Amino acid sequence: MALDTCAECGVPRYITSDHRWLSSGAIVQASAEKTRPYFLECENLDPLFKGIEGIIGEPIEPIVIAIKRMNVKTYIGGTLPDETKEMLWRREIDWRPINDTLRLVARLAGYGRYELIDYQSVGADDDFITESISDPLSIPYACGTMAAAFEILFARELGVIYRKASPDLIEIICFPEGHPEEHKGRFQMDTCMHREGGVELKKCASCGGPAALKSYKWYPDRGVVKNIHTGKRMAILGSETDAIFAELEREFGKIIPRAVVEAQRRFVKTGFCSIEEVGDEGGIRTQLALRGLGDLREIKMGKRGVRMRLDNAGLHLMVVGLVQGLFEMAFGIESSVDWELSPDGDLEVEVIPKGVKEDFINLATQ
Question: pTM higher than 0.70, yes or no?
């Protein structure tokens, strides 16, 4: 796959040709329209997972790796032609050029730079594959992504281990190993049914992608994408994050939604983003839709609290934690938050200072 960037906005054409931003505030892939990816700040992923572990007192990394593996495996399996997969599995064609393309796709999505170190692939039980990943966006996501790719290429279940070679470099080894019995039949990905909404993102005149993507710079050699105004790292994430939270709730119970919101609130308050970045309601609507998080219908924020309605919401627990954290940063007070997600995916959020019980009627914005 040749690397071609838009002369107008600088975005790789693969990104804007394989993704569509819908009026509902969602993003879909041209090759998999029933899945819902996101274009998100990603430096909070591992801190968020660690924060959830700290709150519930249980490790969640194996679940995160398993669900990421399943989602990427579904994506790769759907994009590779059946004939190509059959030829791979009969060892009639070399898997390495396909792996080169998959590594390039990972770099363009902001997943870091994967490099092949060593391998043995002869169909034996002591086969292995070792890759290094520099600037990984998330360690469990990197493990799941690599395992998924080679399960498709080698047509066998693989185990995965990793080690940190340095703060920005990890090495991952995949090897033949059956998946745990308790994982089989679990981790089903929900398909997304999209509907019309009120979002109209201005388009780039050259490539047709959202013009707002001009504010982001791709570093294809590193596998990094950054917001040029804030310096924050971005990535295109699959719908596995929704599935991770749903599976954690099935595993650990009703503590999970509050744990996700609380972990996100804490991380936002470390300076992950600032209230100045949010801007006015129109700017917030654009930024939420650009990230695929939904169609903002209402937001009011003042010292008495926040009320927000987001239709067709994605990653709603992370959105709730984000809103609560931003409110507390803006006004320097602790708060309580409640939310409701309708069966159609419409989210209503209310944040109020702790100790305040009044309803949000004509919420003041001062």
Answer: yes
